[in-house]
Specification:
Elements: H1 3-15, E1 19-20, H2 22-31, H3 36-53, E2 60-61
Parallel strand pairs: 1-2
InterPro entries: Homeodomain-like_sf
Protein name: Homeobox domain-containing protein
Length: 63
């Protein structure tokens, strides 16, 4: 992922550390001309890291 996209994803995660819905992640990725699977993987890795700490917030939301 390009650095500017990663920076935006990090800001999104900091504002709300939950995983957005699949459809909203896909729409968000396509709007930025990046592969949706890469955005999905980015959130998956964040989720796993937080689950290991035991601090994952429940639920999903639309980006």
């Amino acid at each position: 992922l390009p650095p500017e996209v990663v920076k935006e994803l990090e800001a999104i995660w900091k504002a709300d550390p939950r995983v957005p819905t699949l459809s909203s992640r896909q729409t968000w990725a396509l709007a930025r001309k990046v592969e949706p699977i890469k955005v999905h993987n980015w959130f998956s890795h964040r989720k796993l890291a937080v689950e290991k700490k035991g601090t994952l917030k429940e639920g999903t939301y639309d980006l």
